[in-house]
Amino acid sequence: MAVLLAAALVSLAVGARALTPAEVWQGLFAAPDPDRRLTEIRLIVQTVRVPRTVLAIVAGTALGAGGALIQGYTRNPIADTGLLGVNSGASFAVVTVIAVFGLGSPFQYVWFAFLGAAVAGAVVFGLASIGRGAGNPLTLALAGQGVTVFLAAMTTAVALSDQASLNALRFWNAGSVSGVGFDVIRPVAAFVAAGLVLALVTLPAVNL
Question: Which of 59, 67, 143, 174 could form an SS bridge with 127, CB 3.0 to 4.6 Å?
Answer without folding.
Answer: 143
